[in-house]
Specification:
This protein is mainly beta. The chain contains 1 helix and 11 strands; from the N terminus they run E-E-E-E-E-E-E-E-E-H-E-E. The chain has a single domain, classed as Jelly Rolls (Sandwich), CATH 2.60.120. A hairpin with a 2-residue loop joins strand 6 and strand 7.
Length: 108
């Protein structure tokens, strides 16, 4: 299944405007990961908690490793990362359970 690419914003001394991407629970997303990548996730919903899942790229004895799943309360915004390349790979796979989640990848 194809995933939608989410561009990473790099900070600068002059500042930068952060533009979130609406979560796509059908196709999900990927972010290019250089080991300094972080993702600001916001639950813009007004009724229930939502979850975001970060898929690990590594395997143990040929078996995939359980993904990292985090829950965000209504209105909560949280920074996740950085994501080690050895664990998550050069292409970080991000799944959301609802379009109420907004994703903003940044370089930390």
């Amino acid at each position: 299944m194809p995933r939608a690419a989410v561009p990473v914003t790099s900070a600068s001394r002059s500042g930068v405007a952060l533009t979130p991407t609406t979560g796509d629970p059908v196709n999900n997303h990927y972010v290019d990961n250089d080991g300094r990548t972080g993702i600001i996730v916001k639950n813009a919903g007004s009724t229930v908690a939502r979850t975001v899942t970060f898929r690990l790229a590594r395997t143990v004895d040929g078996f995939s490793v359980s993904p990292r799943t985090e829950s965000l309360a209504v209105g909560e915004e949280q920074l996740f990362g950085p994501f080690a390349i050895s664990e998550y790979g050069g292409r970080l796979l991000v799944d959301v359970d609802n379009a109420e989640l907004k994703l903003t990848p940044i370089r930390i």
